[in-house]
Amino acid sequence: ESEDLEKLYRKYADKDFVIIGFPSNDFAGQEPGTNEEIATFCSTKFDVTFPMMAKIEVKGENMHPLYQWLTQASDNGVEDSNVAWNFQKCMIDENGMLVGHVEPQKKPDSKKIVSWIKKG
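^ thats the sequence. predicted structure below, dont judge the formating
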């Protein structure tokens, strides 16, 4: 998935498109490393160049405030959602408004994401 995200990032970088990764260990312990270990792994294994943030919790009692906003319509004004698994994709426009999300099982180059990017 990281490799597919990187391909999308490089393909549409000229359209003012940015991907920001938020690692989380909330799903079957898939991200147990430190922030530095995760960044090194992503850059060396998948040649990731998009920004990677510090590891956060994206569900549960200690959910990071960003993900509270992303998943609560009362905060984001668009939709309620749950983070089902790693690689859930949230689309935020240039004004910082939530556009929607794409479930983790959908590839980064899904029609929903690519059409949103191209629409600009």
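Strands lie at 89-92, 98-102.
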